């Protein structure tokens, strides 16, 4: 039996610039962190070696991997020529909440299968292969930030270059700065789930419009400003940078926000938050706010949403348990 865990991510600035239609022309960048909420995958040989069993939000038992309904399972198991196994997937947070769960699943599945086959895979290769599965093979209208965040883990500045290369630069800051940042960040669940692909499809179409592209260019500048602030151990402008970035992002597509989300955001700003954003593609999920600790009780009383505690995570996709296996580099 092999068990892996792969973290979810919180993206601060630059989301949307990781889509190829944009970064191939302008270059893109994102500042994000992974958190201690995970996608877990467990694999072991199935009792009937001629069948493959999958347990996620549904249960599937198939004679051939081609019969699998779950598109990511089907694509990855077919490409890696794995069958006769039982794979169980469980997560701390459901899909459609803006924490990058789909890509964490893909990264985790690849990591699990490479481990099952007794092969080592680097974090960079893991992220690259996850992007190929989701974007190239399955044709999802998404970017690359989630796969790299999940594979590498930690607080990173991720750059998407015009030649399709991706670089991951860890943010170096003092321990007390990191603690203050974590203490001042709060997550609230809106209770709304969404389809990221639908929102991103609209956003992708809009990138060709000059004003939308300018929004993304400005969001990348803000991501660089945020990187500089963290490296200089200055958090005074963190909230205002988040706020401006959210104002720019919500203009990228009509479905990113709505009147209820806008109302919740305005309520937070009026009750102590210095800035924030809706995580992920938009449409629902989690609201993130930068709010000094002394104001957080007032914020919670006024928002009346479910708070969700978290801590920063630094390991990325990792192996929780593995039996004896022979390793080779791939």
Written account of the structure:
It contains eleven helices and 15 strands. The chain is an alpha+beta fold and 330 residues long. The strands form three sheets. Strands 1, 2, 3, 4, 5, 7, 8, 13 and 14 form a nine-stranded mixed β-sheet that branches. A hairpin with a 7-residue loop joins strand 10 and strand 11. Helix 3 packs across helix 4, helix 3 crosses helix 5 and helix 8 packs antiparallel against helix 9.
Give a short overview.
The chain is of the alpha+beta class. The chain has helices at residues 20-26, 71-79, 101-116, 123-137, 145-152, 175-184, 196-206, 210-231, 238-249, 259-270, 296-303, and strands at residues 2-13, 28-45, 52-55, 59-62, 85-91, 119-120, 155-160, 166-170, 185-189, 275-278, 286-290, 306-307, 312-313, 318-322, 328-329. The chain is built from eleven helices and 15 strands.
SSE diagram, text form:
Elements lengths: L1 E12 L6 H7 L1 E18 L6 E4 L3 E4 L8 H9 L5 E7 L9 H16 L2 E2 L2 H15 L7 H8 L2 E6 L5 E5 L4 H10 E5 L6 H11 L3 H22 L6 H12 L9 H12 L4 E4 L7 E5 L5 H8 L2 E2 L4 E2 L4 E5 L5 E2 L1
Parallel strand pairs: 3-5, 6-15
Antiparallel strand pairs: 1-2, 1-14, 2-5, 2-7, 2-13, 3-4, 7-8, 9-11, 9-12, 10-11
Helix pairs in contact: 2-3, 3-4, 3-5, 4-5, 8-9
